[in-house]
Design a protein that fits this description.
alpha+beta; six-stranded mixed β-sheet; 23 helices; 13 strands
C-alpha cells in the first residue's frame, strides 16, 4: 500500500475531471450543512482532518459518481474513493460552487464566513449537536430573540447560511471567497482599501483560501487488490474508525456479492419517498438480512450467496410495502420517521409475509395497538435493540398467536400499557408522547385555529404546513421567569398551520384564545384539549393551565391507545 500527500485542490481537480469516483459499495452523500461548517472550521484552524483511502485499479469494478457533477474521464485507470467521500464531496461543492445531489434533488452548500470572528477559540465556538443549534430561519423571532441570535452568531467563525445574515457586511459566502477576488468581495461590502478593516479582512480571506492547500495523507491500494478484498478492507477500516453504521458496512458486503444491488435498494427507497415514506437504506439492509437469515445481526452477511440475497429482497419489498401502508393508513402515522424507532416497521413486514398478508380484524387492531405502544414506550430503546428485534422476529416465526405474545412481552417490559399525567412533566418534542399528542388531537378532529384546515403533515404550502405552537408563547413565559423545561413542555404545545403560527407570534393567550373562541367557537380549542377556563389563560395561572392540559392530553392518549 502506497502513501502520498495530496492537497485538497489536487483532490478536487481529480474529482472534477472524473478521475476519482466511488465504488458501488459507498453510500450516498449524507452530510448536513452543519457538518460541512465544522469541517471548514477545523481546516481553517489547521486541525487534523483524518486521511483519505483510495483504490487504484485497472479492472472493471462497479463504480458511481460522487454527489457533485463530474466529467467523464478518458483514462482506463480508475481511482476509487474508499474513505473520505463526505469530506471531499463537501469541499468540491464549496470550492467550485457546484450544486450537490442529496437524495433526488440538487442544491448548493451555503456556508458563511465571519470576517469579524473572535481571535482564538471561545466556548461559543465549540462544536454543538445539531439539536442544540439556534433556529436562524425562524420567522417568529421577535426583536430580543433576533438580537440573541445575532450575538450568538457573532462568536462563530463559520455558519450555515440563513436569512438573518442577509445584508450583514460581516458575513461573506465561503464559495465567493474561492470564486472571487478579495477586492471584489470587500468593495461589494462597501469596504475600501483605506478602511482600517481592509488588511484584517484580506488576511482572513486569504487564510480561508489556504484551505485548498491543506495536505491530506492519501493511502493508496494498488491494482493487486480485487473488489472482494477491497470490500473487506473498507469494512475493516470503517469498523475500526466507527465512522459508518453497521448497516453501511453490511451493504458494502452485499454489493460485493450482488453487483448492482445498491441501485436496486436506492430505487426502492426513491419510490417510497415519492409516496411519502422517507425510509433509510439501513432499514432496507436490516430487513433484507432478516429475510435471508431469520435474524437481524450482520455477522454472517459476508457468507450469503447472491441467489439467497435476491430471493430475500423479493420478500423484503413485499413485506415493507405492506408495513409502510399499514403504518400510514391504519395508524395514521403519515411518515415512518414519526416512530420512535424505524425497527417497528420490520416485524410488521415479517408478519405480513408469514401470514400471506392476511390478518383478521382482531389481529389488525392488536397490531395497531402494538405499534402505538412500542412507539410510545420506546420498545426498542429498552436494551439492545437488535436483541429485542430478534426476540420479536422469533415470536412471529415460531408462535401460533404472535401478536398476543408480543403484547405480553411489551407489558412485561414496561410494567403497564397506559400513561399518567407525570409522564408528560418536562417532556419535549424528543419524547414519543409528542407524536402521540398530535395523533390524539388529530383523532379528536383537531384543525387549524383560524383556517379550519384539518391537521396533516401532507398539507401543501408553507402557510398550511403543520407547525407546533407554544400556547403560552416563549417570550411571554420568559418575561414571567419560567425556564425552558416549563416553556417547552408538550402540554404547552398545539398544532397549527404556519400562517396561523406567525399571526399569533407572542400574543398573550387570554387575548388570542378569546379571539379564536369568538370566531370558531369553543370546540376549536377543545379539539386540541385546551382548557376552556379563561382564568387559566392568564400568565400568572400558567402552572394551573399546564396541569389541566396534561390531564386532558393523557386521557386522550390513553383513550386513543385503547
Amino acid at each position: 500500500m502506497g502513501k502520498q500527500d495530496s492537497s485538497i485542490q489536487e483532490l478536487v481537480n481529480k474529482i472534477d475531471r472524473g478521475e476519482l469516483v466511488l465504488p458501488e459499495m459507498q453510500r450516498q452523500y449524507v452530510w448536513t450543512g452543519i457538518k460541512v461548517r465544522d469541517l471548514l472550521d477545523s481546516l481553517y484552524r489547521k486541525y487534523p482532518s483524518g486521511t483519505i483511502l483510495i483504490w487504484e485499479t485497472n479492472e472493471e469494478a462497479p463504480s458511481r459518481e460522487l454527489g457533485v457533477e463530474q466529467e467523464k474521464s478518458p483514462l482506463k485507470r480508475k481511482l476509487l474513493l474508499l474513505d473520505g467521500q463526505q469530506r471531499l464531496t463537501s469541499l468540491t461543492a464549496i470550492i467550485t460552487g457546484k450544486q450537490i445531489r442529496v437524495k433526488d434533488s440538487k442544491k448548493p452548500i451555503e456556508i458563511m464566513f465571519n470576517l469579524q470572528h473572535p481571535e482564538g477559540l471561545t466556548e461559543d465556538q465549540e462544536i454543538l449537536d445539531e439539536d442544540d443549534e439556534v433556529d436562524m430561519d425562524d420567522d417568529d423571532l421577535d426583536g430580543s430573540e433576533q438580537s440573541e441570535v445575532e450575538e450568538y452568531l457573532s462568536k462563530r467563525t463559520f455558519v450555515v447560511s440563513a436569512k438573518i445574515l442577509e445584508g450583514n457586511p460581516n458575513w461573506v459566502s465561503v464559495t465567493d471567497i474561492f470564486q472571487k477576488t478579495t477586492n471584489k468581495i470587500l468593495t461589494s461590502l462597501n469596504i475600501q482599501s483605506s478602511d482600517d478593516r481592509w488588511d484584517k479582512y484580506s488576511e482572513r480571506i486569504d487564510n480561508v483560501r489556504k484551505i485548498k492547500d491543506y495536505p491530506y495523507v492519501v493511502h493508496i491500494l494498488g491494482p493487486e487488490y480485487d473488489y472482494n478484498e477491497v470490500t473487506e478492507i473498507f469494512v475493516r477500516v470503517n469498523s475500526l474508525g466507527a465512522r459508518l453504521r453497521s448497516s453501511d458496512l453490511a451493504l458494502a458486503q452485499i454489493t460485493a456479492k450482488w453487483p448492482g444491488s445498491l441501485k436496486i435498494l436506492e430505487d426502492y427507497a426513491k419510490d417510497c419517498a415519492e409516496d411519502g415514506h422517507d425510509i433509510d437504506l439501513g432499514l432496507l439492509v436490516r430487513t433484507l438480512v432478516i429475510f435471508a437469515t431469520n435474524q437481524s445481526r450482520f455477522k454472517t452477511v459476508g457468507t450469503l450467496k447472491r441467489e439467497k440475497l435476491i430471493k430475500a429482497w423479493e420478500k423484503t419489498k413485499k413485506g415493507l410495502d405492506y408495513s409502510l401502508n399499514f403504518i400510514s393508513k391504519n395508524t395514521k402515522l403519515e411518515d415512518i420517521n414519526l416512530l420512535s424507532s424505524a425497527f417497528i416497521a420490520i416485524p410488521i413486514a415479517v408478519l405480513a409475509q408469514e401470514r400471506d398478508e392476511k390478518l383478521s380484524r382482531i389481529e389488525e387492531r392488536t397490531l395497531s395497538r402494538w405499534i402505538y405502544l412500542s412507539h410510545s414506550f420506546g420498545h426498542y430503546s429498552r436494551g439492545s435493540s437488535e436483541s429485542i428485534l430478534d426476540a420479536d422476529i422469533n415470536i412471529i416465526l415460531k408462535k401460533k398467536n404472535p401478536l398476543d405474545e408480543m403484547m405480553t412481552i411489551l407489558e412485561r417490559q414496561t410494567g403497564r400499557l397506559e400513561f399518567n399525567d407525570a409522564d408528560l412533566i418536562g417532556k419535549w418534542k424528543r419524547s414519543p408522547l409528542f407524536n402521540m399528542a398530535y395523533l390524539a388531537i388529530k383523532q379528536n378532529d383537531g384543525k387549524d385555529w383560524f383556517t379550519g384546515i384539518a391537521l396533516s403533515f401532507n398539507n401543501r404550502g408553507k402557510s398550511h404546513k403543520i407547525e407546533f405552537h407554544h400556547i403560552f408563547p416563549k417570550k411571554v413565559l420568559q418575561d414571567a421567569g419560567y425556564g425552558q423545561k416549563e416553556i417547552n413542555e408538550i402540554a404547552n404545545i398545539a398544532f397549527i398551520g404556519g400562517k396561523t403560527n406567525r399571526r399569533i407570534l407572542a400574543k398573550k393567550p387570554k387575548d388570542y384564545l378569546a379571539e379564536i373562541v369568538e370566531k370558531r367557537g369553543e370546540e376549536a380549542l377543545a379539539s386540541q384539549f385546551v382548557p376552556l377556563d379563561r382564568k387559566l389563560w392568564e400568565v400568572e395561572n400558567y402552572l394551573g393551565f399546564i396541569n389541566a392540559r396534561r390531564s386532558l392530553l393523557i386521557g386522550a392518549i390513553n383513550k386513543f391507545l385503547k
